[in-house]
Amino acid sequence: MIPEIKAQFTEDILNEAIQRYDIEPGDVRSLGGFESFVYEYAKNGKSYVLKITHTIRRTVDYIMGELEWLNHLADQGITVARAIPSAKGQWIEEIPKDQGSFLVISYEKARGNAISTEVWNESLFEAWGELIGNIHRATKKYEVSSAKYKRQAWEVEEQLRAETYLMPNDVMIDILKERVNRLRLIPQTRDTYGLVHADLHQKNFYLDGQNMHVFDFDDCHYTYFINDIGITLYYALWYPAKKYENKEEYYRTFFHCFMRGYLKQNTVTVEEVSYLHDFMKIRHTLLYIILHQTSDITTLNPEQLKIRAQHQSEIVTEEPLLPIDFVYEFTQIHN
């Protein structure tokens, strides 16, 4: 949580938010939240989610870009957690505070259960790939209704502004700038670039039988489809739901299953796949910067400092994060 947002949040803000959505105070329970305050509540026998963010992070128009795209995906038959208007019919409620405003949005609560070790298998991996392929196919048909609602491009993501959060002498600043500048030169076409979820890891969808219900579109932005794939691979391979003795075999198995599912819904080329390691390294860097944005580095204990140093060493090298040849494995899927 950004310290400036956390410092301004009070019980009065929460009470005002639940009043605007006509929620009984006793029906609200906290779900925590990393960049926003997130709550679950019940109303008329159904479950919903209340999210409270701040203008330090998002503007009203920027959030409207998320909600409009959500509706488009739902209209295309993709199971997403739709937004719910407030008691006065507003998609976003604004609560002024000393330094800006808190912004409140409500969504349907996604059906199903969180991903567990029991369902972490090849069937899930393939369905996951098919889901993202379906989203990419659907977003090719999307046109934002107003320029003011257009979400940002990936390379201007706040957390990629390394010089804002890192020490001036941190080698990461120049390394990140060079990598971003190189990747932004990849040609953009309707078949390779569009509005995507950009954070579809295993904690941002539930499994309801055979159906996957997606939520938390807060980070959606314009980027290459292969970057969106890379983000998912980063979390699934770097932080799997269960341990594997043979990690390299797991990497190959996941990738094969995921891409088989993806190719059922959308196309991707070998050239695009060749950028996967680069985009995974960008995501690894982004998490390094978020650590500096949300924490006081001077208070880290020796073990935390060791982890931070390891994280940095993994980023500065040109070696891939993981020992898998994505291009080779991709060609094997077609053989």
Automatic annotation (TrEMBL):
Lineage: Bacteria, Bacillati, Bacillota, Bacilli, Bacillales
Keyword Nucleotidyltransferase attached: no
Biological process per Gene Ontology, one example term: threonine biosynthetic process
GO terms assigned for molecular function: homoserine kinase activity
Alphabetized UniProt keyword annotations: Transferase
Entry-linked Gene3D superfamilies: 3.90.1200.10, Phosphorylase Kinase, domain 1
Stated name of the protein: Aminoglycoside phosphotransferase
Statement: the UniProt record of this protein carries the keyword Lyase: no
Matches recorded under PANTHER family: AMINOGLYCOSIDE PHOSPHOTRANSFERASE DOMAIN-CONTAINING PROTEIN (PTHR21064:SF6), AMINOGLYCOSIDE PHOSPHOTRANSFERASE DOMAIN-CONTAINING PROTEIN-RELATED (PTHR21064)
UniProt similarity note: Belongs to the pseudomonas-type ThrB family.
Organism encoding this protein: Paenibacillus selenitireducens
Taxonomic superkingdom: Bacteria
Domain Aminoglycoside phosphotransferase: 33-251
Membrane-crossing segments per the record: none
